[in-house]
Amino acid sequence: MAQRLSIEGVSVDFGGLKAVHDASLEIAPGEIVGLIGPNGAGKTTLFNAISGLVPVSSGQILIDDVSLSDRPAHERSKFGIARTFQAVQLIQDSSVIENIMIGMHSRLDHGLFDLFGQFRTSRSQDYVAQKRAYEVLERLSLGDLALTRVSSLDFGQQRRVEIARALVSEPRLLLLDEPAAGLGPDEVEDLEALLVLLTRKSGLSMLIVEHVLSLVFKLCDRIVVLDNGSVIATGLPAEIADNAEVRRAYLGDVAC
Amino acid sequence: MRPAIVIFLLLLLLFAPFVLDAYTQYLVNLALSYSLVCLGLNLLLGYAGQFSFANAAFMGIGAYTYALLTSRLGVPSLVALPAAGMAATALGMVVAGPALRLSTVYLAMTSLAFAELVQWTFIHWSAVTLGTDGVRVRWPAVGSYVAQGDKNTFYVVLVVVAISYWSALRIVRSKLGRAFLAIRQGETLARCSGIDVERTKTIAYAISAFYAGIGGALFALTIRFIVPDGFGLVQLVLQFSMVLIGGLGSLLGGLVGSLLLTVMPELLRNVEAYQEMLYGVLLVLFVIFMPRGIVGLLGRLGLVPQEILVRGAVAYFDARRRKHSGL
Fold first, then answer.
1. Does one domain contain both A68 and A110?
2. CA distance B237 to chain A (A)
3. For A74, which of B194, B249, B320 is closest by C-beta distance?
4. Does the CB of A146 have a partner CB in chain B at under 8 Å?
5. Burial A89-102 (b: 16+ CB within 10 A, else e)
6. What domain count does chain A have?
7. Nearest C-alpha of chain B: how many angstroms from A16?
8. What was the ipTM of the complex prediction?
9. B158-217 pLDDT tens trace
10. Any idea which fold B18-263+275-326 has?
11. Residues 93-122 of A with CB under 8 A from B
12. At a CB cut-off of 8 Å and minimum separation 6, what does B300 contact?
């Protein structure tokens, strides 16, 4: 069940630009790993490589020793990978439940019978699957908003809907791309509590790209620092905070 | 409660031929045929967010397949109808090929070229299509019963339209319909949600062409005489107007738009010269001020229930709420 993600010497080139260069990292089951680095360090590119949105020019991305490199993006959710986006990607005109059910795509298997032959709504796959969707919504305190249009939710709620959509596919590895961006201090605290709750109970692993460093340092078991496309440090939050090279690359020369 | 309303309206429609005069009946049949053509366009454009100018051609292929099969080969209506849909579907898949690789203006031009090619074939392959002379279409027959006249044809049209809308509702309220929406929102989102974008787009083109083809067949048996000219650019503008005015991304929208734009020209008979101009102006106004059309506006006013693309969602959450308040 539990899965280990290994990234082995991955490089991503865009023409002459090396967006990610020879990056390696591992995420153990149940582990929360933070991925930090200055703007343009290649964090989102590495995310996109794991999701299959950009091709890897060398190196391997492995889930439990199975290589994902040749798999198209849409097959990777079957390997237990789900993600959220830096800019919220929700269908604003649709309700929360519709958006959530999109995340369940690979878990549903509507055959022609379920489409046209299943006359009892209560027996259709959609109806049955809503139980799982609803449990996730409850956990994220979105239960009462299931039929509400996304456009009438506040930004913090929209972020949670995105996380819920990723969670309903029952992933083993959740990739969060700046989940705290645009949130107020209270909302960041709520987010932290939520993410702790999600991993500690279920063995779900997470890789988080985030600029709100207080969140990363409190939440993550391990932190990986990327600069100019290369991994410059990996370690426990305390080690990273004391690492001189990280300070120079990330925080600038002014020590804090 | 909602199925009850639908059944009530359908029953009401069953009595329409007793109150309508022959010409109005003909218009209703025509509008219902158009509603399926619009259903096809709406699934592709409104749901999947894919652009194509080939819908009039799909309709034409459906119309010609039905007309030629029944009139020239004596194939029964009930066989020719699905055949019309299948023929359009086959060509829909052909258009889907380039559509997966092209976008924006290139896709528009390619699909337009395809549409012109289809029309050209109707005109010049006269050994089969009878060219510009057109094809006369018989009244539809079910077994030995011939649905003579517009009032009897109405029932044939109504049954086909009802089945089509029911199946379309099932499609959009499934993972397929939601996958269409996800692709419209963004292919990145779709891919990361486990949706095979290329495959889903191809299915969207196929389904869209199928409904347009069936709509074309109904169109043929309603107007009973088809010519190649009927499936050109003017036809395409009409269909876009119907979908955009009725409501993009809403099944009801196509129905409202086709009813409105079939009846309106009749009301504007004495200003015929301005009709096309009026379509143009309406189209622009709607795109700017009411991008979700009439149904979108009614929805915002709470007069039409929100379309939710999850089967039984409202029932599910009602049941859940009752359970909670019961505890």
1. no
2. 26
3. B194
4. yes
5. bbbebbbbbbbbbb
6. 2
7. 24
8. 0.90
9. 999 999 999 999 999 999 999 999 999 999 999 999 999 999 999 999 999 999 999 999
10. ABC transporter involved in vitamin B12 uptake, BtuC (1.10.3470)
11. 93-95, 97-98, 101-106, 108, 110, 114-116, 121-122
12. none
